[in-house]
Design a protein that fits this description.
The complex is a heterodimer.
Chain A lengths: L1 H13 L7 H40 L5 H6 L8 H8 L3 H31 L5 H8 L1 H4 L2 H11 L6 H8 L14 H26 L3 H9 L4 H12 L1 H16 L3 H7 L10 H10 L6 H30 L1
Helix pairs in contact in A: 2-16, 4-16, 5-10, 5-13, 8-14, 10-13, 10-14, 13-16, 15-16
Chain B lengths: L4 H20 L19 E5 L9 H13 L3 E5 L2 H13 L6 E5 H9 L6 H4 L8 H4 L3 E2 L2 E2 L2 E2 L5 E6 H7 L9 H13 L3 E4 L6 H13 L10 H16 L11 H9 L3 E7 L3 H6 L4 E4 L16 E4 L9 H12 L1 H11 L6 H10 L4 H9 L11 H17 L5 H16 L1
Helix pairs in contact in B: 2-13, 7-8, 9-10, 9-17, 14-15, 17-18
Classes of the chains: A mainly alpha, B alpha/beta.
InterPro entries (chain B): SBP
GO molecular function (chain B): maltose binding
Protein name (chain B): ABC transporter substrate-binding protein
């Protein structure tokens, strides 16, 4: 394999260099400088675009910012005050609960529907490629377009969904404007947007399962459901795990769909940590950067914990 | 050419380092005009919230003319309104504010509180001719931080055909009781009542304030009996079916779209919809929003202030002052306010506007009765009151709390936040 050769040449090149002789030392130093120089772009990139913003966000969340101190740059260090404010806020409990429900329900349905469609499309039939391509549309549309469209469809008075319900004799539902339904509505829209991603990744995972295994299973008398549960599903596990992790990280921070459809309302009934963080920092005339950053950091920690759980599971599977 | 191995490596290292440098410091020559240009030369920067106007528009031409009169070149950037507040705060933090900043009136007190704006005293701007109720939105602690370029406010658009069918005379709608009775008649005649925006943002508070103030309530006491009566008015309209449930999610634009369908008798909307009103294809009229006891309710003022942000180079203020005076001078204000569909900030220009367009008379009346949201020296306490207020009307309209309970909760939150 090509991969192996590069490693071997790399190892071979290091052997002749031995510490002690002056030219060898110089050669080694040049190589080290070169190595660092090649490393420098990516390190600089990571520092400038990842480490520094993270540091700034942490710094924002640990200081007491007012508009005045934001401009003057002399905000006093306030320790965990912003976090205490956030935890003590009556919006915190509902926002956390909505985040968990929104993420959990979205993931379950996105994954189940995505997997069902992937298995369906795995058997090639006429127009299957076209149909599969059509399923990608929600993913390709800009979020502002899809969220606005959902918002129109679910409008209480002039929406097509209530019109359709009216035809079959069901009373209109205030999808976006009643506290009972607003979270359900944004979850439905989010599932619709997330299915294509699951479909694509799981479909490519299915392609990677060798046909011989299915043949062997068929010879052993396995059919339909049992093939799916005993062959397809276990073999898809690594792909499923990464799909779910990516979906989770993505869903935790979903903001645009909710903001466009309900603004997190009515009265916090569809507020998640992401929309709350935005509302604190940018949603009113007087920005509250400190608590806003604190909520943002909580989201990062949640995503990080899930990532660590994933790595641990993967590690256990490997050993 | 054959390079030795180490030479090649060194070259590679140099290339990689250059790339790094380019990543951290932008890899282009920096703009010579920005930053430390001296007072006489260098373009003067102007930021405004009118991205809809391009370089060929009357507005940008006016900016260039004013620049030419002051003997400088101007560099103008148009931002989205909501974006501009954060941009202005960041610019103030990094000490590269524009010379002239045109900003939405409730933001003036926020920026002034941040120490980002100069006072009119410091820049020697004349505000004598400005209507006091409009200027108040830019005043904090006895100091004025800008000059209003014009104002807009809210009134009720009505659909003549729908009212005629219901047998309602719009001229008689002077108080809440008459308006509610009219809505009942409209509903009986098969029409739809009224649409407005009660969304859970500042836009919703803006639309609720005419009713809130029109009841006699004060922003310093959200749970007063007057305030409860205003919220009960809205809630009852929803319960009776006089207003659609979609108001909870309506922005002023979607509320306008509902009115533009031609089914609704009334739509609460602003001066800026006048141009669109002509395109609806039905006969419309405009009345001032009535107060509870009768007469015109004070509506909140919209519209921007022209301000001069704090700069480290104080020598630039003299030119900024000339630019602002030019932009807000009577003739130019007339052009600008006509372009923006605003009502002028001085009585003299208002009279000219009404002479040219008689239908503006009702708007001029509404602006005269209007009140800045940050007025009464509320300043930056206003946003902390507005948010509990919109939470309260969302709770009451969606039925999760009764109007008195919702407003009581709002008052508790607002009192804690503004203490």
């Amino acid at each position: 394999m090509a991969h192996d050769t590069t490693i071997r040449t790399g190892a071979a090149a290091t052997v002749p260099v031995r510490a002690g002789t002056a030219p060898a030392r110089r050669a080694r130093r040049t190589r080290q400088v070169a190595a660092w120089a090649f490393l420098a772009p990516v390190v600089a990139y990571l520092l400038a675009f990842y480490a520094y913003p993270l540091y700034r966000n942490l710094d924002l969340s640990l200081r007491h910012y007012t508009v005045r101190s934001f401009v003057q740059g002399d905000a006093p260090f306030s320790g965990a005050d912003n976090y205490r404010t956030v935890f003590g806020d009556p919006s915190f409990g509902p926002a956390l609960l909505h985040t968990v429900v929104f993420t959990g329900v979205s993931l379950v349905f996105q994954f189940a529907l995505g997997l069902a469609l992937a298995v369906f499309f795995a058997q090639s039939f006429r127009l299957s490629a076209t149909l599969r391509a059509l399923f990608l549309v929600p993913w390709l549309l800009p979020l502002i377009v899809s969220a606005s469209t959902w918002s129109w469809m679910l409008n209480s008075d002039s929406g097509i969904v209530n019109a359709a319900l009216g035809v079959v004799g069901v009373d209109p539902v205030n999808w976006l404007t009643s506290p009972q339904w607003s979270l359900v509505s944004v979850i439905i829209a989010n599932i619709w947007i997330g299915v294509p991603f699951n479909l694509v990744v799981l479909y490519s995972g299915l392609q990677a399962i060798p046909g011989e295994i299915y043949e062997a299973a068929a010879l052993d008398g396995s059919t339909g459901w049992s093939t799916f549960w005993r062959v397809t599903f276990p073999l898809l596990r690594p792909v499923s795990a990464i799909t779910l992790l990516l979906g989770l990280v993505y869903t935790l921070k979903v903001f645009d769909i909710i903001w466009i459809m309900t603004r997190g309302g009515p009265t916090d009934s569809s507020t998640t940590l992401a929309t709350w963080s935005y509302r604190l920092s940018f949603g009113s005339l007087l920005p509250e950067f400190g608590p806003g950053a604190a909520v943002g950091n909580l989201l990062i920690v949640m995503a990080l914990v899930c990532g660590l759980v994933y790595i641990r599971i993967q590690h256990r599977q490997a050993t | 050419m054959r390079l030795s191995r180490s030479a090649r490596r060194r070259l590679g290292a140099a290339a990689a380092l250059t790339l790094t440098a380019c990543l951290t410091v932008a890899c282009s020559s920096s703009d010579p005009g920005s930053g430390s240009a001296d007072a006489a030369s260098g373009p003067y920067t102007i930021w405004d919230p009118y991205p809809q106007f391009d370089d060929g528009s009357a507005w940008v031409k006016l900016l260039n003319t004013c620049g030419a009169e002051a003997g400088v070149t101007v560099k103008r950037t148009g931002y989205d309104t909501t974006d501009l507040t954060n941009k202005a705060l960041l610019a103030a933090q990094q000490d590269n504010s524009p010379d002239v900043l045109i900003v939405d009136n409730p933001v003036v007190s926020t920026l002034a509180e941040a120490g980002a704006l100069t006072t009119t005293e410091e820049t020697k701007l004349d505000t004598a001719g400005i209507e006091p109720n409009l200027l108040a939105a830019g005043q904090l602690g006895g100091k004025t931080y800008g000059v209003p370029i014009g104002a807009n406010t809210l009134a009720l658009y009505y659909n003549k055909a729908v009212l005629t069918k219901a047998g309602v005379d719009p001229a008689g709608l002077k108080d809440w009781a008459a308006l509610t009775a009219a809505l009942a008649k409209v509903k009986q005649s098969g029409g739809k009542g009224i649409t407005f925006s009660a969304i859970g943002t500042e836009e919703g508070s803006f639309q609720f304030l005419p009713w809130f103030w029109g009841s006699g309530a004060q922003l310093t006491r959200l749970d007063s009996p007057e305030a409860v009566s205003a919220l009960t008015l809205w809630t009852d309209w929803l319960k009776q079916g006089y207003a659609p449930n979609s108001v909870l999610n309506n922005t002023q634009t979607t509320s306008w779209q509902e009115f533009a369908t031609g089914d609704y008798a009334f739509g609460e909307n602003g001066t800026w919809q006048l141009a669109n009103a002509k395109k609806t294809g039905f006969d419309y009229g405009i009345i001032a929003i009535p107060s509870r006891a009768g007469g015109t309710a004070p509506a909140p003022t919209g519209g921007e202030f022209v301000t001069a942000p704090v700069r480290s180079d104080k020598a630039r203020y003299a030119v900024s002052q000339r630019l602002i005076t030019c932009l807000t001078s009577a003739d130019n204000a007339l052009t600008t306010d006509t372009t923006l569909s605003y009502v002028a900030a001085t009585a003299a220009v208002q009279r000219k506007q009404v002479a040219a367009t008689p239908e503006l008379a009702v708007w001029v009346e509404a602006v005269k009765a209007a009140k800045g949201r940050t007025s009464d020296d509320l300043g930056t306490r206003y946003p902390k009151i507005s948010q509990p207020l919109w939470t309260a009307f969302q709770a009451a309209l969606s039925g999760s709390q009764s109007p008195p309970d919702a407003l009581k909760a709002a008052q508790t939150t607002a009192a804690a936040a503004t203490r």
